[in-house]
Amino acid sequence: MTKHNNTTKPGGNGESIRTGMSEEAIRLAFLDNLFYVQGRFLEVASLDDKYKALAYTVRDRLLHRWVSTIRTYQQANPRTVCYLSAEYLPGPFMGLNLLNMGIEEPTRKALQSLGIDLESLIAYEQEPGLGNGGLGRLAACFMDSLATLQIPATSYGIRYEFGIFQQDIRNGEQVETTDNWLHYGNPWEVRRPQISYDVKIGGHTEHYTNEQGLHRVRWVPHETFRGVAIDTPILGHDVNTVNLMRLWRAEAAEALDFHAFNEGDYYGAVLREVRSETISKVLYPNDAPEIGKRLRLLQQHFFVTCSLQDMMRVHRTTGMPIERFHEKFTVQLNDTHPAIAVAELMRLLLDNHHLDWDTAWHVTRHTFAYTNHTLLPEALEKWPIPLFQSLLPRHLEIIYEINSRFLDEVRQRYPFDPDRAQRLSIIDETLPRHVRMAHLACIGSFAINGVAELHSQLLKETVLRDFYELWPEKFQNKTNGVTPRRFMLLSNPGLGSLLNETLGHGWETDLEQLRGLEAHADDPAFQERWRQVKRQRKEALAGEVHKLCGIDITPTSLYDVQVKRIHEYKRQHLNLLHIITLYNRIKRNPALDIVPRTFIFGGKSAPGYAMAKLIIRLINAVAEMVNRDRDVAGRLKVVFLPNFSVKLGQWVYPAADISQQISTAGKEASGTGNMKFSMNGALTIGTLDGANVEIREDVGAENFFLFGLDADAVSHTLANGYRPWDYYNANQELKDVIDLIASGFFAHGDRSLFQPLVDHLLQHDSYLLLADYADYIACQDQVSAAYRDPQRWTRMSILNVARIGKFSSDRTIAEYCRDIWKVQPVPVKLD
Ligand code: B1H
Fold this sequence. Notes:
The protein has 831 residues and is of the alpha/beta class. 47% of the residues lie in helices and 15% in strands. The protein has a nine-stranded mixed beta sheet, with helices on both faces. The chain binds ligand B1H. Belongs to the glycogen phosphorylase family.
């Protein structure tokens, strides 16, 4: 094997083996890492060895930039964003880091010269599934944009040992298995044992007067754990900025309790060790919280206290007084999951730093800003008082004090409206009593935002209406965005090249430049290349579908895609009603001329959400019947992709022709998949919900397939005694579809299997599928008509991409920086 022992100039041009960017430097670094880190030589190296060797090669170059970033920040002492989130879904790192560093090509060549295919190493990486869906993925897009915009920022969270479960489909059903993502090790993370903090829980508080006669509080916990930092570098695109994702892992307070050990309590010590680690053991796999889960509250407190203590450590190094904490840090609460931070910062300032209440409250109220991500009442977090009291007794005292001072203000402001104080209170007094985390977040934050225009508006009118009336100046909108680096450049290289050729570079970090495409929308030669790009991604997805499901799909058919968490409000079953409608049409009229379609579904259900699991069963049951029916062969195909993930999404978004964004209007706060599809030239069929509204405004109504009731009509329909039966009786096609499901046709004659679903639709239909059915079917017919005209379709597709610029997370982050965080870019020079 090639051997070298000079670590300073392997390329012969003064480049270091740890940092050089040429093909030769990368080749030598790869071999060096393979040999000295993995202990292997090429001939016997496994795929894992090669993947790791390359990961370490990339990581060395990342660390180089990281060190420069830390130096720069130390000297400049800039105002810093801290993002607190219980979830992150960053996706695989290798491809993006290569791309952001601009060394994809030399790396590909270096590996090629060794007979290794870069794509196979990229495909091998397992992603950290440390989130449920949109909320966690948004946090990851924000990290990418913060680094790219050169904003000093740290993203804090939990290093779950097991992320979101792996979804298998067995006999058409979702089966959950554990996600052991750390099994083979994670080359991207750096453990920092010196950076660790105590985490107290339980016990009681003691109030006393100190020697100076001052009132003090001591929290005597029942137990103490430790949180240890595990860091992952986050590189921006085409810049040297490397920010930090700092995740906390729970450990026992002392690695092993040697005191107990000496007293002979060996098993006790080991058990404590094991019990401590359970705090960061597993991600809760629900996209709405489970009320009263002790471990979940513990996780929230755990990562929040570690993160705040970490900020205070950094703050100390600046020499600034603690009263100016909020000038150094601005802390964003990603939903209410970290909202306990409001009480925890107060506790640290009062009990550890001995600030008086008013000063501590001033600092706290100027530190936090809160993003709400949902209006669904079942997703608003609240904790039973007894549970809260038993885990966080000091925090509860502080919350009572915050609340009492706040309610005094409220009563003064509205002296003749006693109900209002009740409604605004942090404590929900209806028995059993609860702590409302959204109220704590609103009271403790200087800014509150929703994630799309419609959502922010509805927030002010519904769940946060009383807070809006109290403090209108706190409320803002920050429409979500997604990163074009991962979701265009990396996942759709063909599109990337075509855009570079047409527009030159620059659009990757200034997505509004895509407007330049409008001039080419009707150019037949450009249109032809556009179609080739799409065609190539459709073929690639067909290959993946074959691998994952053993089903062959046809790239000439229209790919009609819905990938997202499975939820009744997202209405995957409305999509099914359409599929069965088409099926019935063909069965009635076998010669029917329709546009051939491939329906692709993907997404996980919360393990305890029975109706969502039943929807997955129905998708698979319909797929089974449709796919084996010769009468519809070549015209209809249905696929359920198991275990949808960021990685799988990168195959799916670029290949879609139609993107289904069909939630009941008013229910989807924003959606972000809608943006990823549109950026890749898929057309949207959707309701006026979440960010769909703004996407349609920007791409143009004529380039968007709109259907369904709007949010106002939805509330009116539900308020005025909605009767789904009337719709069923009035529409023969709808009746046929529902009857077919009820008949057991998709369950080998078993009428009972899907009965709960049918019953719910006919009796309640809380998400208004039947009310929207006719309009949805008519709209899908228009989709087919448009697809028959390739010039028209391609023009619409090009215009979608041309006008999607607003939905880059760079725009979103620039707005947060300007309107909420008040932070400036700090460019980093390489040392
Ligand atoms: C969103 C969640 C969520 N909203 C509770 N709320 C969770 C709530 O584990 N929990 O308890 C986890 C997640 N996730 C999503 O956020 C919205 O539904 C989307 O519409 C939105 O695009 C996304 C990002 O803002």
